[in-house]
From TrEMBL, chains A, B:
This is Phosphoribosylformylglycinamidine synthase subunit PurS. Keywords: ATP-binding, Cytoplasm, Ligase, Nucleotide-binding, Purine biosynthesis. It comes from the Bacteria. GO terms for biological process: 'de novo' IMP biosynthetic process. The keyword Endoplasmic reticulum does not apply. It comes from Geobacillus proteiniphilus. Coiled coil: none annotated. Its main location: cytoplasm. The gene is purS. It is an enzyme of class 6 (ligase). Part of the phosphoribosylformylglycinamidine synthase complex involved in the purines biosynthetic pathway. Catalyzes the ATP-dependent conversion of formylglycinamide ribonucleotide (FGAR) and glutamine to yield formylglycinamidine ribonucleotide (FGAM) and glutamate. The FGAM synthase complex is composed of three subunits. PurQ produces an ammonia molecule by converting glutamine to glutamate. PurL transfers the ammonia molecule to FGAR to form FGAM in an ATP-dependent manner. The keyword Transport does not apply. GO terms for cellular component: cytoplasm.
Amino acid sequence: MYKVKVYVTLRESVLDPQGTAVKGALHSLSYTEVKDVRIGKFMELVIEESGRDINELVREMCEKLLANPVIEDYRYEIEEAVAR
Amino acid sequence: MYKVKVYVTLRESVLDPQGTAVKGALHSLSYTEVKDVRIGKFMELVIEESGRDINELVREMCEKLLANPVIEDYRYEIEEAVAR
């Protein structure tokens, strides 16, 4: 079993209205030292051994479903082989 | 300037319907080796030096706005002092 952490972030060139809203909320709580906020997704997957290369498998899942490669970047970490 | 990465995840005991939906979608794409998916948020903040302790500041922002401590856990990394 693998534990995989996937981080999906908007590409630099894409506007992040959710991040802008959170920045505004932080400012209104008087945290004016916050200069930028960008929000992404963080996913934890537990994947069973299937004979396929785990790297290739995760990359495929990211490209097909977990991230939108047009506007998002992703990176992942394959954490460890968890005991069954 | 600090670059801070904040990871917000649902507590283990809290159901994650979004994760369940993504798992279902992965299964329907025939990635049946995926046994569990949990979805969280990932935030990147750029914070200016303000004389306050950066750790304390980030913890306060997480408790007040970025995470809901009743159902979510958070952790953060203070990455580096970015050149102005």
